[in-house]
Automatic annotation (TrEMBL):
Residues 5-214 form the Aspartate/glutamate/uridylate kinase domain. Homohexamer. This is Uridylate kinase. The keyword Kinase applies. The gene is pyrH. The keyword Nucleotide-binding applies. Pathway: Pyrimidine metabolism; CTP biosynthesis via de novo pathway; UDP from UMP (UMPK route): step 1/1.
Length: 244
């Protein structure tokens, strides 16, 4: 794998949940923070986006009768809570951080100011972007693709609970095969579950590779960044080589 100097790491809110079925599990957040520190110590510049699904998803609220826009703002606030939990865990192990939220809340964190974010990275800080794109009807996947584009990241790393992109769901189909590399267009055409379509097409338009890997496996982020771990890269060229 090409060496990626500046990365955007996207974690779903569930990565903060551990074995719980809801909310934030501080030991789990601390473990993930350790992964981020290892990547930073290896010389990478790191932007972070964390979802909010462990606390609240707008669609779920809307399905139970809430106004969708209100519910989505609640989801965005959930991502701010996760961002603060991650900031706390990173600072506890000596990693300097800043949180920038797309929904402004000055007492809690900075607003999104890209030039300032750039400066934070130069100074070796991890920048955590919260509240997605700051508007309802979007997801934090889209927020991640947007910030990765704006910050000119070399790659978007998507940490999930599976070790890459499969041609069918490996949890239900034992014969599912994993791709080493796959094209953006194939992911969109086959509706493969990588990120939502808006996020994938934004990465495609800005030629940002998406690296899908398992964040639950200890040490995996640093391994994948060193080109050693198991992952799938979604990129411009389709070399769709599948492995069992
Ligand atoms: N959200 C939003 N706009 C954004 C990002 C997030 O409205 O730009 C809301 C939306 O309701 C979403 C929730 O925040 O369901 C949590 O984000 P997401 O579902 O992306 O979290 P994840 O699945 O990654 O944990």
């Amino acid at each position: 794998m090409a060496s990626f100097k500046r990365i955007l790491l996207k974690l779903s809110g569930e990565a903060a949940m551990g074995d719980q079925s809801f909310g934030i599990d501080p030991p789990t957040v601390a473990r993930v923070a350790g992964e981020v520190k290892a990547a930073k110590d290896a010389g990478h510049e790191i932007c972070l986006v964390i979802g909010g699904g462990n606390i609240f998803r707008g669609m779920a609220g809307a399905a139970k009768g809430m106004n969708r826009t209100t519910a989505d703002y609640m989801g965005m606030l959930a991502t701010v809570m996760n961002a603060l939990a991650m900031q706390d865990a990173l600072e506890a192990i000596g990693v300097s951080t800043r949180v920038q939220s797309a929904v402004e809340m000055n007492k809690v964190c900075e607003p999104v100011i890209l030039r300032r974010a750039e400066r934070h990275l130069e100074k070796g800080r991890v920048v955590i972007f919260a509240a997605g794109v700051g508007d309802p009807y979007f997801t934090t996947d889209s927020g991640a693709a947007l910030r990765a584009s704006e910050m000119k990241c070399d790659a978007l790393l998507k940490g999930t609970s599976v070790d890459g992109v499969y041609d069918s769901d490996p949890k239900t189909n034992p014969a599912a095969t994993r791709f080493d590399r796959i094209g953006y267009d194939r992911v969109l055409a086959d509706n493969l579950k990588v990120m939502d379509a808006a996020a994938v097409s934004l990465c495609r338009d800005n030629n940002i590779p998406i690296v899908v890997f398992n964040i639950r496996e200890p040490g995996n982020l640093a391994r994948v960044l060193a080109g050693e771990g198991v992952s799938t890269t979604v990129g411009a060229i389709e070399e769709g080589q599948a492995h069992g």
